[in-house]
Specification:
alpha/beta, binds ligand LQESDW3C, GK/Ca_channel_bsu, Guanylate_kinase, GMP kinase activity, 387 residues, binds adenosine-5'-triphosphate, 11-stranded mixed beta sheet, 5-stranded parallel beta sheet, elongated, 26 strands, ATP binding
Length: 387
């Protein structure tokens, strides 16, 4: 995402701005953002709505101040803000010391939505949307070699968030394991019947995996979606490739083992396959890992060494972490440091703490933003580094 030309941000006495040193004062702060011949003052109290911060516009040509119509629900007043002008007429506004999911906001000042509203209302309009961490709604495709722990991680997620996630029950021609139930773990299918259904276009994807046929029926995914839950697919790399080429807009996660030895130990300890099947799965694992890492199918790669750590990272990728701890830094929402600089590098907003011995850096990855005013802007990933 490139930056729009001819846009700059200034900071006034209390404010905070692009790429410069900032010291926030603990009082009712306003930030001043300059875009072309206009200055947007963001902060203080909204003149008509005490629950949302205000926006005022100064037009340099007429030297007039005016209050635009503010659409959407904006952030509540806070003791500090940081702002950064993004492309598409959007200003990223970060609130200091806010609770989880209350820290990141977008003020649209010249987006397609705002331009449309200006035409309709014949007034100056700006619009808020709340920044939502992670991609909260897209189906999740999880792949990785047999025995790496995909099923274990998915079970943990479904146990902790039972109303949020639903599992896409695959079809398979392999025999059930002793604990597996038809229609719960898999739809155990006859090969000829499954092949006929594939021919009839009933499957989103299918593949021959370790000598058996596996596939995701369209019905299985729709059953989860109809129940209002986010669908999780546990499928192999071939299947993930097919889903990627399909119309299903999903996020793709590949789970890697810490080593081949550990993968072998896990498969043996599970005790569900014969020695011959274990050998076959291990042989296939090498090619799967190579493809998983290098094919470009998977946007996110997780190493499942320590299960709890891996689960935490998975939740973070999905924007589900209550309090995020990354590299030893605890961040409740985005705890904006009092003194900091803000800069942008490609698709990353870098908030760098200054003036202390230990410096925290918070990185907002905004490469996959979607949605916008007057609702939610999704897809922000947050990382924190202490050095
Ligand atoms: N991080 C971990 N450390 C140690 N053991 C683990 C870890 N994660 C999972 N396991 C164990 O490894 C075994 C394999 O895990 P699991 O069945 O979840 O793998 P899987 O990737 O779903 O395999 P498959 O693709 O064959 O279904 C299980 O016995 C599980 O308890
Ligand atoms: N392409 C697909 N792969 C699938 C599907 N369901 C499961 N799988 C993958 O198969 C292997 C082996 O699973 P197991 O239960 O026999 O151990 C594993 O990698 C799964 O991810 C599917 O519908 N399509």
């Amino acid at each position: 995402m490139g930056e729009a030309p001819a846009i700059s941000v200034d900071h006034l006495e209390n404010g905070h701005s692009n790429g410069v040193y900032v010291k926030s004062e603990p009082k009712n702060i306003e930030i001043s953002v300059e875009i072309g011949d206009r200055t947007f003052m963001i902060g203080g109290n909204h003149e008509r709505n005490n629950f949302s911060i205000g926006v005022q516009i100064h037009d340099k040509n007429s030297n007039n101040w005016f209050s635009p119509i503010v659409l959407g629900t904006g952030p509540k007043p806070s003791q500090g803000y940081s702002a950064f002008v993004l492309e598409q007429g959007r200003i990223l506004v970060i609130k200091k010391g806010s609770p989880r999911n209350e820290s990141i906001w977008f003020l649209e000042v010249d987006s397609p939505y705002v331009r449309e509203q200006k035409k309709l209302l014949r007034k100056e309009v700006v619009a808020w949307s709340k920044g939502v961490r992670g991609n909260a709604e897209k189906p999740i495709v999880i792949s990785g070699p047999s025995g790496v722990g995909k099923g274990t991680l998915i079970s943990m997620l479904m146990k902790e968030f039972p109303s949020m996630f639903g599992f896409s029950v695959s079809h398979t021609t392999r025999s059930p394991r002793s604990m597996e139930r038809d229609g719960v773990h898999y739809h155990f299918a006859d090969k000829k019947v499954m092949e006929k259904e594939i021919k009839d276009g009933k499957f989103l994807e299918f593949a021959s995996v370790h000598g058996n046929l596996y596939g995701t029926s369209i019905e299985s995914v729709e059953a989860v979606t109809d129940s209002g839950k986010r669908c999780i697919l546990d499928i192999d790399v071939q299947g993930a490739r097919s889903v990627r080429a399909s119309s299903l807009d999903a996020i793709f996660i590949f789970v890697c083992p810490p080593s081949m030895k550990e993968l072998e130990d896990r498969l043996r300890a599970r005790g569900t396959e014969t020695e011959e099947q274990i050998q076959k799965r291990l042989r296939n694992a090498e090619a799967e890992i190579k493809e998983g890492i290098s094919s470009g199918i998977f946007g996110l790669i997780l190493y499942n060494d320590n299960l709890e750590e891996c689960y935490k990272k998975l939740k973070k990728l999905l924007g589900l972490d209550e309090v995020t701890s990354v590299n030893g830094v605890e961040i409740e929402g985005i705890n904006l440091p009092t003194e900091h600089t803000v800069s942008k590098m490609e698709d990353k907003i870098i908030i760098q703490e200054t003036g202390k011995e230990t410096r925290n850096k918070i990185v907002l990855d905004i490469s996959s933003l979607n949605g916008g005013a007057p609702g939610r802007t999704r897809g922000i990933l947050v990382d924190a580094i202490k050095f």
